[in-house]
Design a protein that fits this description.
The chain is about 45% helix and about 15% strand. By secondary structure, it is of the alpha+beta class. The strands form two sheets. It has a six-stranded antiparallel sheet with strand order 3-2-1-6-5-4.
């Protein structure tokens, strides 16, 4: 955990209170590992959300959870086996890039079942009574964690709420929270699939790029896409594209060569997205090859 990030997220006063509470309180007993922990941790990693600030997409789930439960804080948490990351929160300050040791959390217990994990009164639960979770500045007297389940039964984390005093959610609250957690999990799955699709597309584009530039790198491909979009790219990339005869300078202006134009088409880029000029006739030495190609 980054000390600077923790102080910034909690504020110096609360950070010192938390440190004192942890030093003087009983430890939360570690929860048993889920039977599919290796797969579960891998799935969390595959989301690609840890280490990214996606709070704008997930704060709304935390806000609605807080409203449904009538509690002080709401959070969307991912747990990777070592740390818990709050990717969306409401009711208190948090840092979406700050990992909290998983064995210090309530949510570690919510990974064990696809059903909600509810602690109406933490002072009556021997696992949490007297722990730092129940003392200032956290003051958790109530906890409700709703698993973020994948379609094949993997629990990625929780949609949860906490409150300073005990609460007893009714059946309607539990029903709404379960539905909300299902929607939050679906949003995570959608973002994961979109990231995988983007990565797969980039790999395919790089393979096509290397048909024209056998030693081409991902940076060079991204530079080519920049050039097509804006008519320019970083100087070092422009030099690489020129060395591969994908672009050429004419009267001080950079343009696509015939190969560059063919590459643009191979990558599925619309001609109207190109911001420069382009070569419309084959360079010297290519005419015979083109003629033979047309003759079959």
């Amino acid at each position: 955990m980054s000390l600077r990030r923790a102080i910034k997220a909690e504020g110096l006063g609360n950070f010192l209170k938390l440190g004192y509470a942890m030093a003087t309180s009983q430890k939360v007993p570690p929860a048993p590992k889920p039977q599919n922990e290796t797969l579960r941790a891998a799935r969390v990693s595959e989301t690609g959300l840890i280490g990214r600030d996606v709070s704008r997409q997930f704060e709304i789930f935390a806000e609605i959870a807080k409203t449904i439960l009538g509690c002080e804080t709401g959070m969307v948490n991912l747990l990777d086996g070592a740390c818990q990351y709050t990717i969306g929160g409401a009711g208190k300050g948090y840092d979406p890039l700050l990992g909290v040791p998983q064995d210090l959390t309530f949510c570690q217990y919510a990974l064990l079942s696809p059903e909600p994990f509810i602690v109406p009164d933490t002072s009556r639960d021997e696992r949490f009574a007297g722990s730092a979770l129940t003392k200032p500045p956290l003051n958790c007297g109530f906890y409700a964690g709703f698993p973020l389940n994948t379609p094949d039964g993997v629990v990625l984390g929780t949609l949860c709420g906490t409150h300073p005093t005990p609460l007893s959610p009714n059946e309607e609250q539990l029903r709404l929270m379960t539905k909300l957690a299902t929607t939050a999990a679906a949003q995570i799955q959608l973002m994961t699939e979109q990231s995988s699709l983007t990565a797969s597309r980039i790999v395919g584009m790089l393979a096509k790029f290397r048909q024209f530039a056998p030693d081409g790198t991902l940076d060079e491909l991204m530079g080519f896409l920049d050039f097509c979009a804006r008519g320019t790219a970083p100087a070092a990339t422009m030099d690489m594209l020129a060395a591969d005869a994908i672009i050429a300078s004419e009267a001080g202006d950079w343009r696509l060569t015939r190969d560059g134009t063919d590459l643009r088409a191979a990558l599925g880029l619309a001609p109207e997205t190109y911001r420069g000029s382009e070569q419309t006739i084959a360079p010297e030495g290519r005419g015979v090859d083109d003629l033979l190609g047309k003759l079959g």
